[in-house]
Amino acid sequence: MADLTSTRKATDYFQKHGSSTDGDSGPLIQVRNLKKYFPIKKGIIQREVGAIKAVDDISFDIYRGETLGLVGESGSGKSTTGRAIIQLHRPTAGNVIFDGVDVTQLRGNNLKEARKRMQMIFQDPYSSLDPRMPVGNIISEALEIHKIGENSTERLEIVQELLVRVGLNPKFVRRYPHEFSGGQRQRIGIARALAINPEFIVADEPISALDVSIQAQVVNLLQDLQEEFNITYLFIAHDLSMIRNVCKRVAVMFKGRIVELADTDELYQNPLHPYTQVLLSAVPIPDPDIEKKRERLIMDPNFNYGEMDSEMTEVSPGHWVASSRAK
Amino acid sequence: MQPLLELRNLKTYFYTENGVVHAVNDISYQLNEGESLGVVGESGSGKSVHALSILRLVPSPPGKIVEGEIIFKGQDLLKLSNEEMRRVRGGEIAMIFQDPMSSLNPVLTIGEQINESIMLHLGFSKEQATNRTAELLDLVGIVDPKKRLDDFPHQFSGGMRQRVMIAMALSSNPQLLIADEPTTALDVTIQAQIIELVANLKEKLGMALIWITHDLGVVAGISDTIQVMYGGQIVERGPVRSVFKDTRNAYTLGLLNSLPRVDQASGTRLTAIEGVPPEMLQEPVGDPFAPRNPYATERCYTETPILKPVDNGDPKHLVAAWYDLREVAADELKRRREMKFDG
After folding, report:
1. Beta bridge partners of B22
2. Residues in Cβ contact with A250 at an 8 Å cutoff, skipping those fewer than 6 apart
3. What are phi and psi of A141, to 5 degrees?
4. Which residues of B touch A248 (CB under 8 A)?
5. CA–CA distance, A24 with A20 (Å, rounded to integer)
6. Count of helix runs (H) and strand runs (E) in chain B
7. Which of A126-135, B213-222, B274-283 holds the top average pLDDT?
8. Does any CB of chain A come closer than 8 Å to the CB of residue B268?
9. What digits encode the pLDDT tens for the residues B287-305?
10. Of A327, A324, A318, whose CA–CA distance to A60 is shortest?
């Protein structure tokens, strides 16, 4: 492992935030000291007695056209991070610079304009589509809100093109969500996200509700769309195998903090943070020769993986780790 | 040797408003004492329904076991009275489910719930039962078990609740434990702990285990035998190593190739299985995977393939296929052999 004494410290973390090794295209999004706390209220008058620190002072960049993976276990704050970036949750503190503009400061029409460039794909394709709306309306709703397309005929054409693009029959516009399978619904969710031609999409566990044989279809579709439209993704998942497959860089979250961030293969081959090591060791590998002999690292209940020196240190180019234990 | 469990031509259907769902379509297999069987499949494959059928827990209506025999220790479970079946269930055969919270009674303490099961199945006194319960909680890795006897289910985390469920399942010294996706709702680090716990307990107590999952990685680690199900049928079955390394069914191969691996370099494009799983509303004709199988022959659409031994010298490795995968998918199999992994 790298020798920490010879590495740069957190001061340049802000200038060179987990930079990609071939990062000639600059960051589309810069997240700086982002915090999102949810108040804990008690009693009749709902007095605030504390806060859940869902996201606690995290900083990272997302480069144009890349897929950044965000992994962590339930409650680690990965979904909250995604929502705070696209302003579905207004952050408690910190900044989100989207293409040079701090979107945390925007209000009203300016915010609406910025939101047009950012979309989200949700985990559950069953609850994220209005069951009483035909698919065509679900997709064209965003077009109407953002005044895309001259009239309903033109919007219908756009919707049909989108359906074809995500691999569905354009004749499906009048059908309702319950008439589709889980994988098809996720395609509808993707078509809806694509409708307003966003530059950035937060994909929050987009495949975890799908059958194994369907997951690869949806992931391949997301990758094709990225190539075609140069979309930037924040790909949130707990499936570390899928993250490795689709992401260029990966950030590992634990209890509201990022503990490690690196180029994907570097992180998987050379995990430095003890929590990353435990997490990777837990993932089963579909090969009995390997799996039957594996010695697993078990999470030490007495060791606090999260509350370490929160300073990020760059131990090798682009490989950042919450320091003090990574030696 | 007489098998511990034998299923013969089991068929379980659901009679719904939309028609008859052919959930389990004529499956037969044997499970030996102490054997660890991994059943793999996706939703609608029949993997869970077949397990519920063994315990006669298929909700009826709409479900019904329409045909077959389930022989456990020489006795057809389908011929037992409800009272006799209750003693087998949670006695010699125990089951753990995906969601431990919904299988625990929220208003009874953990101690009360496990005691009840021990007193019922083993005829222990309350005091004996309490001691046994504490032992069991200790066995499944719950720290300070005596203190936790008076806790309610909501006071345990998801992983701890699943440990409690395992303790309860073990309370009657079962010879067969059926685990239906017990780790699917858990975080991956907790999943690893639960799998290790069950594997150790299985060795220690000499139980047979049926582990139902969609995760081929879990099966690779915990099972002796793997059984791949699709469309309510067994499409391939055999010793884990033989099925993974000498795959003979196109669906098994499709699953393996569509799965990303944590030890495989990023950017490897996955080979998706096109199409969608069958709806099971029609009487099955032919190979259920045929419509999604790029290697399907004409016969696959008209005639249901029979599960029979492959010719690789392992009489336990069975496949249901009209094609020879080594011929029709030679290129894909070669690519698979040449894949590079870390380490």
Report:
1. B13
2. A68, A69, A70, A71, A243, A244, A261, A262, A264, A267, A268
3. -55, -45
4. 266
5. 8
6. 14, 12
7. B213-222
8. yes
9. 999 999 999 999 999 999 9
10. A318
For A205-217, the DSSP string reads: STTTTS-HHHHHH
- Residues in A 285-304 with any Cβ partner in B closer than 8 A: 285-292, 294, 296, 298-299
Write out residues 199-258 of A within 8 Å (CB-CB) of B.
211-217, 219-220, 223, 238, 240-242, 244-248
Peptide bond into B62 cis (omega under 30): yes
Specify the pLDDT at position B313: 82
Rounded distance between C-alpha atoms, residue B32 and residue B207, angstroms: 10
Report d(CA A264, CA A250) in Å as an integer: 6
What does each C-alpha distance from A198 to A44, A135, B202 come to in angstroms?
44, 20, 52
**DSSP code per residue over B105-152:** -TTS-HHHHHHHHHHHHH---HHHHHHHHHHHHHHTT-SSHHHHTT--
In total, the C-beta contacts within 8 angstroms joining chain A to chain B are: 137
**Phi, psi of B277, rounded to the nearest 5 degrees:** -60, 155
Residue B237 is inside which H or E element, if any? Answer: strand B233-239
Q: According to the model, what pLDDT value does residue B251 have?
A: 96
Nearest-CA distance from A280 to chain B in Å? 8
C-alpha–C-alpha distance, residues A75 and A202, integer Å: 18
A51-60, A89-98, A176-185: least confident range:
A176-185
Q: Which position has the higher pLDDT, B99 or B213?
A: B213
Q: Where on the phi/psi map is residue A93: left (φ > 0), alpha (ψ -120 to 50), or beta? A: beta
User: In this complex, is the C-beta atom of A26 within 8 Å of any C-beta atom belonging to chain B?
Assistant: no
User: What's the DSSP call for residue B214?
Assistant: S
Residue for token pair 């492992």: A1
Q: Is the Cβ of B93 closer than 8 Å to some Cβ of chain A?
A: no
Average pLDDT, chain A: 86
Contacts A262 to B, Cβ<8 Å: none
Bridge partners, residue B229, by sequence: B234
Write down the mean pLDDT value for chain B. 91
Closest Cβ opposite residue B277 in set A211, A244, A265: A211
Q: How many CB atoms lie within 10 A of CB B267?
A: 13
Q: Are A182 and A214 in contact (CB under 8 A)?
A: yes
- Tens of pLDDT, residue by residue over A175-233, are 999 888 888 899 999 999 999 899 999 999 998 888 888 899 899 999 999 999 999 99
Taking an 8 Å cut-off on Cβ atoms, the answer to whether B276 and A214 are in contact is: yes
Q: What is the mean pLDDT of residues A267-279?
A: 94
Q: Does B297 touch chain A (CB under 8 A)?
A: no
- Radius of gyration of the CA atoms of chain A, in A: 21
Average pLDDT of A21-29? Answer: 68
Rounded Cα–Cα distance for residues A246 and B34 (Å)? 40
Average pLDDT over residues B71-93: 93
pLDDT-derived band at A8 (thresholds 50, 70, 90) equals very low
Tell me which of B262, B268, B317, B336 to substitute to probe the interface with A (most A C-beta atoms closer than 10 Å): B262
